[in-house]
TrEMBL record:
The keyword tRNA processing does not apply. PANTHER family: CUTICULAR PROTEIN 62BB, ISOFORM A, STRUCTURAL CONTITUENT OF CUTICLE. This is Chitin bind 4 domain containing protein. Residues 1-18 form the signal peptide. The lineage of its organism: Eukaryota, Metazoa, Ecdysozoa, Arthropoda, Hexapoda. One of its GO terms (molecular function) is structural constituent of cuticle. One of its GO terms (cellular component) is extracellular space. It comes from the Eukaryota. It comes from Asbolus verrucosus (Desert ironclad beetle). InterPro entries: CHIT_BIND_RR_consensus, Insect_cuticle, Insect_Cuticle_Struc_Prot. Keywords: Cuticle, Signal.
């Protein structure tokens, strides 16, 4: 019965105000714009105005984290001489092994890494979150 009422209502609406499913014509107008190109003089001016490196980038850094409270243990060292970077990092994976990654990057060969796993014989036991939070509460 509800279906019949819905059909009658639909037909009444269609006879009173039929749906207009036609669309108005759509026109698009595009105007041509000229995209500026850089001249060879622009490159010379840019090089003259911007500071150019006077020497090849060189750096050496490292860090070590060994936190017995959280079980976090990791390290990294990296050396850069010009465009050649050598380095390594290590961390303790959740399965108790140490992952060591040694890498080299240069413009000729790209980034190359050697990954190895070392069994360290222990799975770090992280303290419960409640224990950490309880010890870190400070009252003012």
């Amino acid at each position: 019965m509800a279906f019949r009422c819905a059909m009658v209502a639909f037909l009444v609406v269609q006879t009173v105000a039929p749906l207009d499913l036609t669309h108005a014509p759509v026109s698009h107008s595009y105007r041509k714009i000229r995209i500026p190109t850089l001249s060879p003089a622009h490159e010379k001016i840019t090089k003259a105005l911007l500071p150019q490196p006077t020497s090849a980038p060189n750096y050496n850094y490292n860090y070590v984290v060994d936190d017995p409270r959280t079980g976090d243990s990791k390290s990294q060292q990296e050396v850069r001489r010009g465009d050649v970077v050598h380095g390594s990092y290590s961390l303790i994976d959740p399965d108790g092994t140490r992952r060591v990654v040694e890498y080299t990057a240069d413009s000729k060969n790209g980034f190359n890494a050697i990954v190895r796993k070392e069994i360290i014989g222990r799975i770090p036991a992280a303290p419960a979150v409640g224990e950490i939070l309880a010890n870190d509460v400070q009252y003012y």
